[in-house]
Design goal:
heterodimer, A: rod-shaped, B: mainly alpha, globular
Chain lengths: 180, 187
């Protein structure tokens, strides 16, 4: 590129500036070594951060696993009831006393461990539903001890209706003493 | 390119790189050194990789240009956060400069540097790449990641403004600054 006088003048000024810059320029080795040291430090920092992150993740996973096991223990007694190994009304004290029941409960408790999370939760739901049904049946069958006091001789008359095609004699049977 | 070859290339271009870093950092020597160190760090860590798409020098200058811009943004944010007062121009020109060096500088050189300071950033950088680093306009465009047309415009405007700023000093310096060419004075 052909330079005009003006451009040559600017170039000369820049050349002078360059010489001035070279006087204050830091040595290449110094800057390069500092960059090397910084790079090494950064690598160490990254490794340390990585190690800390791995430890935290491991701790979180272990605690999660431990807590999930702890939570799973409660529905297991329901599993036992569902499978029929233990009667619903059997208290933990009763189970402990009976060695056969204890064995049955242990078998039931061990089984879901191999199944994993999903079957366990399904079994727990099923057990809950069954126990609710049983409770409902038990409630419907319940009778008060004083229910007999409410019975009277005319209960039969109130519970049945006379038929129109019945004759008079049969109708009379509805009367308490045969007379009106 | 292996690391030893890279180191050799960088060493060869170290003075030019420092000059370019100075220009990108408004002649702040400390900042320029920091930028250069960051650039070397980027190269060492593989964040900046030379793929041979341009000359090594153009690529290196482009890395310096981007790094300096990023550093300036960081510094600006830091200043805004601290709500500190901006530094004066006198501090920015050459903080490491001793009194002897200042005396040694010619009056013309001082005027020239002041004129450069007053130029817009792009114009100053274009003139630096062309006159200080001897790059062509195309190479300068590659470094600054702008079109050749823009570089040409910055170049012409920068020259014009520099001429206007340095105009009054031409008599004292003995150069026919405006008007006819006088190559013998500057050769």
């Amino acid at each position: 590129m052909a330079l005009s006088g003006e451009e040559r003048r600017i170039r000369a000024l820049f050349r002078e500036l360059r010489l001035e810059d070279e006087r204050v320029m830091p040595r290449f080795a110094a800057v390069w070594n500092r960059a090397h040291i910084k790079s090494a430090r950064r690598k160490t920092a990254v490794d340390f951060r990585m190690a800390v992150a791995v430890v935290i993740v491991c701790f979180a996973l272990f605690s999660l696993a431990f807590l999930s096991r702890h939570w799973q223990r409660k529905p297991r007694s329901i599993d036992a009831v569902a499978s029929g190994a233990v009667k619903p009304e059997a208290s933990p004290a009763q189970i402990k006393k009976d060695p056969e029941l204890v064995q049955q409960v242990r078998r039931v408790i061990r089984r879901p461990r191999r199944l994993g999370f999903a079957p366990r939760s399904q079994a727990a739901k099923l057990a809950l539903r069954r126990s609710t049904t049983r409770d409902a049946i038990a409630l419907s069958r319940w009778r008060s001890p004083t229910a007999t006091l409410l019975r009277s001789p005319g209960d039969e008359v109130f519970r049945t209706l006379p038929q129109l095609n019945q004759n008079l004699h049969e109708m009379e049977a509805f009367l308490p003493n045969g007379t009106n | 390119m292996n690391i030893s070859a890279l180191e050799a290339e960088l060493e060869k271009l170290h003075s030019s790189s420092f000059g370019w870093a100075l220009s990108c950092c408004r002649r702040d020597r400390g900042e320029a050194e920091e930028v250069l160190q960051t650039v070397y760090l980027k190269i060492l860590e593989g964040k900046a990789r030379f793929r041979g798409e341009s000359s090594f020098r153009t690529w290196l200058f482009a890395v310096i240009y981007k790094t300096a811009a990023a550093e300036q943004r960081k510094n600006l944010l830091r200043k805004l956060r601290l709500c500190g007062e901006p530094q004066g121009k006198a501090d920015r020109i050459s903080p490491a400069e001793g009194p002897d060096a200042a005396v040694e500088r010619s009056e013309m050189q001082i005027r020239f540097q002041q004129a450069l300071e007053r130029l817009p950033l792009r114009q100053r950088q274009t003139l630096h790449l062309v006159f200080y680093q001897d790059l062509s306009l195309r190479e300068a465009a590659d470094v600054m990641n702008i079109s050749v047309g823009s570089v040409r415009r910055h170049y012409e405007r920068g020259k014009k403004r520099l001429r206007e700023s340095l105009g009054p000093s031409e008599i004292g310096y003995g150069v026919k600054w405006r008007g006819e060419k006088n190559p013998s004075v500057v050769s």
